[in-house]
Description:
By secondary structure, the chain is α/β, with parallel strands linked by helices. It contains 10 helices and 11 strands. The radius of gyration is 17 Å and the shape is globular. 46% of the residues are buried.
Amino acid sequence: MRLDFHTHGKLAKKLPFSTVYTDWLFEEAKRAGLDALCLTEHFNTLQFSELYGYLASTSRRTGDVLVLENGLHVFPGMETDVAEGGHILCIGTLEAVLELNQRLEPYKEKGHFLPFAALMDLFEQYPVLVGCAHPYRAPGHVPELPVEQLNRLDFLDLNGKDMALNRTRTEQLTYDLGNRLEIPVVSGSDTHQAAQYGCIATVFEQDFVTMERMIEEMQARRYHIELSDSAALQVRTAGLLKKSLKAIHALGGDYVSILTKGDIA
Length: 265
């Protein structure tokens, strides 16, 4: 099973949610060869609950995943900022993710983010798997936290964007931290724009549809990580497209129609 642990369902968190754009993203994820992804949308994105409400209404529930019409399996999740600088991923049931997002409402603005320890206290009240996204990307400081706090993490994200920019540094630092904490290192593309899908993937030996099995397979290390030969090009292309599409939106244009014309009926 080819799984991407870090993806987004919107072009940018301050842009309005578009069902057409999200549908297009998930079609492209399937075309890129993914069997499943973790939808780790930013916790303070505009219309977070609407995004998940739409997915719940257009999918069927199997275990802990939302199975889309095209067969793509979506594990619900969220990406949360911490006060120290850095992003924390959580993956779990739809109900847990939605309730956590509601409880984080007072802490969604910069200057009000929860400290890492307080966020972990909150996450530990729910059945979620917790990891550090792109731990060594500036201006994050999560790896500098006391080891007793870092030991609360379940996994680390070997991020496709960072791998494309500097593979040697990203691998060395991320795996060193994973070994020190004795936790799995898995991979996420950090996709906001579909060109980035498939730049990196975690390939599991077995399929699964529950968080229990995900944890079991991760802890047993029954997977390997594949980095695309074109990862650097994919990341650069996605970045340029994202900037261009945001500029089109700022000028009053319909970036969704421009992007998806010919792909979505």
